[in-house]
Amino acid sequence: MPNKIVVTGPESTGKSSISSLLAEELNAVHVPEMARGYLEQLDSPYSEEDMHAMANLQFEKELDAANSDVNTVVCDTDLLTFIIWWEVKFGRCPDTWKNLWMNNLPDFYLIMDIDLPWEDDPLREHPHRRAELMERYTLKIEECKIPYSIISGSGEERFHQALAAIHTIY
After folding, report:
1. According to a count of CB atoms within 10 Å of the terminal CB, is the N or C end of the chain lower?
2. Which residue ranges does the record assign to the NadR/Ttd14 AAA domain (predicted)?
3. Residue 122 is part of a domain; what is its CATH number?
4. Is residue 111 scored above 80 in pLDDT?
């Protein structure tokens, strides 16, 4: 199994950019965030049924990458994002997804800090709850005892900090 690194954290923190750059730098398979493409195709507000579909799509892409012949997989989010999203949006997350996440934990998390300014986007939610969400991500990862690093700064500084954090583990 390849090393699995997940870039996670609240919305508008540079996860997609950083995960893509890291995958390229590490010659790794990149698993992009699948929810955005799914949500862009909807013509109505998303439902819990849509959450199941998006989580399943994300997890399938992770499994495909993990089963490929590579040393490293870099994921732009994972099931943890869906667990927190479910809890915030619907008050709870189905145990099935929590268990699936617990049985497929990554080797390392990079939590993107909320020090970047919020960028408006019609698909983003909760601009005023980023500190609360940051705390949720950190606590859930700490509960699982998975190594992690909080990445701050902007642009190249953020990328180099993420790369340095990875090199402390690998």
Report:
1. N
2. 4-158
3. 3.40.50.300
4. yes
